[in-house]
Design goal:
Elements: H1 2-13, H2 18-30, H3 34-44, H4 46-52, H5 58-96, E1 106-107, E2 115-116, E3 130-135, H6 142-150, E4 157-166, E5 169-171, E6 178-184, E7 190-194, H7 197-200, H8 209-238, H9 245-248, E8 259-260, H10 262-279, H11 294-307, E9 322-327, E10 332-337, E11 340-346, E12 357-366, E13 379-383, E14 389-391, E15 408-409, H12 412-421, E16 427-431, E17 450-451
């Protein structure tokens, strides 16, 4: 598996190297991951054909693979050196830079990478940690850490989680790693504790209770993101804010939300007010959307980490509206917020019969045509005023293939989670070659605690299955 990781990193940097794709495919095949192996062999093209149908000495392949591995390891070591140097320069800068927040920072190698303040533990405020997340590769360097340290609204105790990058995307994986914590003391000093042994060259302490609370925070942020997007979708459609949470979670066809949770009930009023403020900003407020380039994803997350601290009324971490992206080439359907992928499912489609373009979820129905085991499965999400839909299937073997008449087929557990995650009115973008191949499926699926009747016995659906 370690070879696979280095080869994967290499082909990401050199996507035109067909030999590297072939070697990565061989590694996946050796590990029993035939689907991934076949994808790599397809990318390898003529190299796969040449090597599979000729007797090339194994030493030749092994020598080439060792060269690729050495190049990948060398690049990884150089990145670590640069990252450690940046951290050292940043902390030296903070040490000598006058600031009302963090004077007299000192690094103590014997305290596992802590930025020492020489203050007794009782001087650190005894409050709950708040959480945020940034890209894992640059977790403790650059302007993210600087902004957090200098921002007067940074909480007294802040825990920072790491988002993994895949191309231009950042992955919202279950149980993201804890990168570091910041703890303000009463006299304006800040203690920085790294939990990443590669970045601080230390043996970090056990995260303990923080790990469990981070998982709870992730779960709550998903719930708040769903509610936030539902409020926005309702307001865009109706020209007004929803009067109550119940108005969002009404029976079909007004089921903007598939169901509710206690966190949604507690946060509805705050998010409703924030949505009104966001859609009617003061003159001069920058409401530009997230940048469309790869660097924009990093800037977006850095901005999110900072923006979360701007308002006393706490907003969701995932403030970009929930959107569905469908990749016809890779047979993937992703749920995203900005450039963060929350889920990445495998789906079945119809090849050229599946249209490309932008659609809206207009109908969300449980048990289309009256039953959960029919041709449309247990959930259906209609795409605009068309005969196309995202739905379940009674042919699960067709997932990952082009066997439908144009609709997008999903496994039952996947489509039921998608139905719960995305509000009515969600935008669906269908194109090719835009999503990572890696599936992103949590062990514990998203499911609201309270649901309403969302069947539609008055209509027979005639989607192009």
């Amino acid at each position: 598996m370690k070879n696979s990781q280095h080869l994967k990193a290499y082909v990401q940097m050199h996507p035109d190297n067909k030999m590297a794709w072939y070697l990565l495919g061989k590694e996946y095949y050796k590990n029993g991951q035939e689907g991934k192996a076949n994808y790599c062999f397809n990318e390898a093209g003529e190299v796969y054909e040449a090597f599979e149908h000729s007797k090339v000495p194994s030493e030749v392949l092994r020598e080439y693979e060792e060269g690729v591995m050495r190049a990948s390891l060398h690049r990884h070591k150089n990145k670590l050196k640069v990252r450690r140097l940046l951290i050292g320069l940043l902390l030296m800068l903070l040490l000598f830079m006058p600031s009302p927040i963090i004077p007299d920072l000192q690094i103590n190698e014997e305290t596992n990478g802590t930025v020492e303040n020489n203050i007794a533990d009782e001087s650190i405020p005894k409050t709950e940690y708040r959480f945020t997340a940034v890209e894992h590769e640059g977790a403790a360097s650059g302007k993210v850490l600087t902004n957090l340290l200098k921002n007067k609204k940074t909480p007294s105790l802040l825990a920072v989680l790491g988002l993994e990058r895949s191309g231009k995307w950042l992955l919202w994986k279950q149980n993201m790693p804890l990168n570091y914590t910041l703890a303000k003391t009463g006299n304006g000093r800040t203690t920085y504790q790294s939990y990443n042994s590669e970045e601080c060259s230390c043996q970090p302490p056990e995260p303990g209770e923080l790990t469990a609370k981070a998982a709870q925070w992730q779960k709550q942020q998903e719930e708040l993101a769903v509610l936030w997007s539902s409020i926005r979708a309702f307001s865009n459609s109706k020209g007004r804010s929803p009067a109550s949470l119940k108005e969002l979670a009404s029976p079909f066809p007004n089921n903007w939300l598939a169901g509710t949770t206690p966190a949604m009930k507690n946060s509805f009023i705050v998010l409703k007010k924030a949505s009104v403020r966001d859609q009617n900003p003061p003159t001069g407020t920058d409401k530009s959307p997230i940048s469309e380039d790869a660097e924009g994803s990093k800037e977006a997350v850095e901005g999110t980490a900072a923006n979360e601290l701007k308002n006393e009324e706490e907003l969701p971490f995932l403030t970009a509206p929930i959107t569905i992206i469908v990749d016809k080439q890779k047979h993937r359907l992703a749920v995203i917020s900005g450039y963060i992928i929350l889920r990445n499912y495998e789906v079945g489609m119809g090849g050229d019969k599946t249209p490309e373009g932008s659609f809206k979820i207009t109908d969300k129905v449980v048990n289309p045509n009256g039953r959960a085991n029919g041709e449309f499965g247990s959930r259906g999400l209609q795409l605009s005023d068309s005969n196309y839909a995202i739905h379940g299937t009674d042919e699960p073997e067709s997932i990952g293939k082009d066997e439908s008449l144009g609709c997008i087929r999903m496994n039952r557990e996947d489509v039921e989670e998608l139905f719960a995650l995305v509000p009515r009115g969600t935008t669906v973008q269908i194109s090719k070659g835009v999503l990572p191949e890696e599936l992103l499926l949590p062990k514990d699926r998203f499911s609201p605690s309270t649901t309403q009747n969302q069947t539609n016995p008055r209509k027979v659906y005639h989607w192009l299955n």
